[in-house]
Specification:
alpha+beta, TATA-Binding Protein, three-stranded antiparallel sheet
Length: 116
Amino acid sequence: MVTSEGKVYEGDLVGVDEKLNIILNNVLGAGKNVYKVVLNSDFVKEIRLVEKPFDLRALAERLNRVFPGMVKIMEDIRSIIVMDKIKVTEQGVEGSGLAVERVKSVFDEFMRETKE
């Protein structure tokens, strides 16, 4: 992120409020030992995305083909819930039961395809 004053900040984007103020965690460029920075939107000149975000919706659509009507996207926690008991995030699949193996295989295939 570049400010109108030319300062550059790098970090994990964790929030944007209603006034478009930006919240970054694990910030580089803000000094030593800075964990979180809130930047006023009036001073934000440019935001650069350095890696492609995980496509939660595309994975949910694929899971919905295998488990029709049993897939819910939980945007607030960046998760997909399958059959109300299997949780899928960018990090992997959590849950138990026979369906977990099928969800894991869909997840693994999706991850392989998106990394290519």
